[in-house]
Amino acid sequence: MQNTRGHILWIDDEIHHLKPHILFLEEKGYILSQAANGQDGIALSEQNNYDLILLDQSMPGLDGLETLAELKKNRSSLPVIMITKTEDEWLMDEAITGQVEQFLIKPVNPSQIFMACKQTLEKIKLHEQKATSDYLKEFQEIEAQLSNELNVDDWWRLYDRLTDWQIKFDHYNDTGLGSILKEQIQTCNREFINFIESNYESWMQSNNRPTLSVDIVPKYVKPILDKGEKVCLLVVDCMRHDHFKSMMALLEPFFNIKLDYKLSLLPTATPYSRNAIFCGLFPDDMVKKYPKQGDDMKNDSTSLNQHEKQFLIDQLKKMDLGDKRVHYHKIWAVEEGNKFNNRIKDYLQQDILALVVNFVDILAHKSSQMDVLKEMVPDESGYRTAVRSWLNHSWLLQVLKKLSENNFTVILTSDHGSIRVQRDVMVAADREASSGVRYKYGRNLNTKEKNAIVIKEPEKFRLPVFGPQPSYIIAKDDVYFIYPNQAHKYQSKFKNSFQHGGISMEEMMVPVAIMKGRG
């Protein structure tokens, strides 16, 4: 039986008339069992582990629908193909809600039956084979592309392709290509880091640069407000591109989605990249205009984004949009999210609704602290699954539905992404250095340059200068920083966890989704 294509039970009161069909399926490699009524079919199903049931609707005694219900009670995942003479829509509806795989109308020829069986039993295998063939071809194309000089748009398209393959392989675990894709992403990341090192400093001094965190409001929000339309700026903290792509299917029933991208500022962390979205300023100018923010950053405060509402209001005033009605809301707990959802009608008259949602970031950080979350989010695939499941069952999806129905354009983005860290790297720093795992600032910080960008002149990177002999170190690849005297403690805590602050495609290349309601 191991060499067969599957074991099928065919239940039909006229089974003796179906000998040609049965012989045809057996020639194709299937094993066929037969039952002439629903009761016998149910009994056989309870005694045998069939791969598929072919079920007639019009039978004396138990009809097809009644038999279907009993079969599903015994094994809810058992695939069933229903075959009937009638084309009544009510019957189709009942069969579909009863979880049949396909609905065939008699008369059916042997080839039709074979095709239906093949599609039901082998579709995953066929999809996996096609995915394997397509990826191996694309693997070569991507490798060849890396030998060319890529601009930032090229890098986004390449990263987008890799992300699509990550999500596809989430569904097809048996291809054996997941490890190859992971290695290819690592290879691409090394080239991407070289690209950033070669270009980032010049971008900081020029208007001829990619879209950065500071450009989100001017480029995406302002044009909507200028037309007198309502907009929601939704920042999902720490959301990666693959997270958004995995959530798109949940959003598309309500929105037409146009996907763009931006680069997070360095370091890829909230004090720099998220504050830059709301104030529209590079970090060096931000701390000059808002000294209190600079003090918080210098002291490595636990709250480094408490001024975002004021930042946004000031940025709108600078763009002559100071008359717009603004509501800002930061949501870090489900209770607060539910309260916001219940009161959404109070905010629908605002011109701009600014939301910051922290779930994805909290999940990343807590997964390094709680064993149960480490098991739920062991890798990138688990992280995507957790984020998608959260959105599907969260207050946020309900809010987005209501915004889509009330003429809001939603600009959904993130401040930065994250990367799963694997390798610890020793760093030399004094006790005044900041506490980041993927970036640090302080006096005379040092580590090997193959593992990090070491910045001795912060002003060239538009970074604040805190005290004498200032320096920053920003991690490359999948490394995280540890101190020699606490190496074991941090190794056990952070290895395989998701962190941010450094340079990688996952951290820097952030989606910007322009979402307009379908209604």
UniProtKB/TrEMBL annotation:
SUPFAM superfamilies: Alkaline phosphatase-like (SSF53649), CheY-like (SSF52172). It comes from the Bacteria. GO terms for biological process: phosphorelay signal transduction system. InterPro entries: Alkaline_phosphatase_core_sf, Bact_response_regulator, CheY-like_superfamily, Sig_transdc_resp-reg_receiver. Pfam families: PglZ (PF08665), Response_reg (PF00072). The keyword Phosphoprotein applies. The modification 4-aspartylphosphate is found at D56. Residues 7-121 form the Response regulatory domain. Keywords: Phosphoprotein. This is Response regulator receiver protein.
